[in-house]
Amino acid sequence: MDEKQHIGRLFDRIAPTYDGLNHGLSLNIDRIWRRKTVQAMPVAKHVLDVAIGTADLAIEMLHRSKTEKVTGLDLSAEMMAIGREKCVRRKLAVDFVQGNAQQMPFADNMFDGVTCAFGCRNFSDLDAGLREMYRVLKPGAQVTILEFSYPTNPLVRALYDIYFTRALPFIGRVVSRDKTAYTYLNKSVKSFCWGEAFLHHLNDAGFHDEHFTPLTFGIATIYTAIK
Hints:
- This protein is of the alpha/beta class.
- It has one domain: Vaccinia Virus protein VP39 (Rossmann fold).
- It is 48% helix and 22% strand.
- Helix 5 (126-136) links the parallel strand 4 and strand 5 (137-148).
- Helix 1 (3-25) packs across helix 4.
- The longest helix has 23 residues, at 3-25.
């Protein structure tokens, strides 16, 4: 099984418990992070939400009138099925497309904005994914990315490590009944780039005016850049 199939199936398995665990394990701080991410977006008529998952970010941007329409892309059919149900209940204009972020099935210069929440670290090739975001984005438009990062404060980092290496995998395993998913989460966060290093990847993909804003002691970070 190749890596993109592995990631898609992993999220398919945990889809039924994903939202509850996300909100519970973060003490609902993830909702604040998404709200701040949407606040960092300019108004854009049609937005592509990469790794849309269960559509929490898409719902937030539509509720706050940052866009008229969202197209969501994800590998996991089960995650998108839950997201689709949530959007239908709220009568929100979201199209769901199953596909690979590193080979997007969209035309060049198609979208007025691109977003991605907690998806970039799951790309098998980060640079390929960012280049695709650049390709489908209209000139002058903004990409807005929310991703986990690693705290720099020694005390916060120590507490973070205890929680992410012991408590979170245990709770995630018990609730989701998946032995690997939340162990994978911890490993993927610790091995991923953040801060200035992530900005370099954005610049290499062609973006300019790159900025980052740490959230909650650096546990998560918002990145913005312009095509």
